[in-house]
Amino acid sequence: MKRIGVTGHRSIPQEVHEHVLATMRAALGGIDGCVEALSSLAVGADQIFADLALAQGARLTAVIPSGDYEDCFADGAELARYRALKARAVREVRLDFPHSTDEAYYAAGAYIADHCDRLLAVWDGRPARGLGGTGDIVTYARGLGRPVTVIWRDGVERD
Asked: Residue 51 is part of which domain span?
């Protein structure tokens, strides 16, 4: 079974959104249920990827960074979407961090990079804003020799 992981920004500008969807669909196309999709199910790139992967018949693995991860969702709608995706996961990996810290996020991203055959990165190419950000996980995955597909549009800046 092929394993595809995701890392990416939570905030995706509208002018990049359609490109992200199309590139992820292409990466997941023709998988015939033979793919494991690894995601932390955060708002933004992680949830977009999880939705598309499930729609293509992939088996979703939810990588949960911490015991209080649900507290990180800003409102009830975000939390409900997270819970709905998590409920559809065939496997849940819960890391041993009690609280959602930068270290927990880095560990979750590293877990995904360690366990995937290919990493999709919705990334503007800029350094991470904190430990465990997209730039850190791309650097980590590349250090492992993992193929990384960066998904972004030149000239578009993130908020």
From this structure: 2-6+18-151
